[in-house]
């Protein structure tokens, strides 16, 4: 029960990496606020946490909208009295188009969730954390924040930008007791990757590129988020933790 008494907010917490992290935080004693756009999945995640003896609630929010980000934090503080930890994890992928064929609306929509969404989330999380003397924020970037591949310019730009935003936030609030870090997972078994793997040959190519010969499970990423959010990382800030089984060092 390493997070007993703590309150954690997780955007995109109703599926994939966010859901696995929500379950793990709850198992370690934190009260968890699941944030997402889809109510059915959100409530199902709350149910599974409660069935396992944990405490959780769901708030519907689109992180690309400032009013929604204000509401998700306000609702958390209203319900649980404080905010200690945030995982800004809501994200969308977009693959397949080279830059000359990409359209403005598609490019902007990816940045709106992956980059602006993390900014708006932190903008409202930080004052709530300052109100109780500090906290820990983790932003879900990607190995696509460190390296590039063709046909994913919007996603790659959003994740590179998110690492810069993480460093800026870490410096701005270090003296006030807020640590801000990022995680950079490689391919992880979630809905996002299942959609990508549905394209012919992709699963074999991606799995074959992984040094361990397999992709990550969401729980393996969740464990890294708990490390960065906890006392074990009390002097870690502005860091990008790569969770890729050695993929980017090849
Ligand atoms: N799965 C991977 O291989 C992988 C690798 C590296 C990074 N990531 C990142 O991990 C994060 C989680 O993705 P995942 O793999 O668990 O996939 P996922 O599709 O299961 O989770 C993404 C979640 O974000 C939610 N979401 C999307 N846009 C939103 C918005 N505007 N407001 C609120 N919620 C929104 C989705 O509904 C979903 O619940 C994303 O930021 C993704 O870029 C994933």
Give the gist of this structure:
By secondary structure, the protein is of the alpha/beta class. It is built from eight helices and seven strands. A seven-stranded parallel β-sheet has the order 3-2-1-4-5-6-7, sandwiched between helices.
List keywords for this structure.
250 residues, alpha/beta, Rossmann fold, seven-stranded parallel β-sheet, globular, binds nicotinamide-adenine-dinucleotide
Walk me through this protein's architecture.
The chain has helices at 16-27, 39-51, 66-80, 104-130, 153-173, 191-197, 202-209, 218-229; strands spanning 7-11, 31-36, 55-60, 85-88, 135-140, 178-185, 240-243. It is of the alpha/beta class and 250 residues long. It has a single domain, classed as NAD(P)-binding Rossmann-like Domain (Rossmann fold). It has a 7-stranded parallel beta sheet with strand order 3-2-1-4-5-6-7, sandwiched between helices. Helix 1 packs across helix 8 (218-229), helix 3 (66-80) packs parallel to helix 4 and helix 4 packs parallel to helix 5 (153-173). It binds nicotinamide-adenine-dinucleotide. Nicotinamide-adenine-dinucleotide (NAD) is lined by residues 11-12, 14-18, 36-38, 61-64, 89-92, 113, 117, 140, 142, 185, 187-188, 190-193.
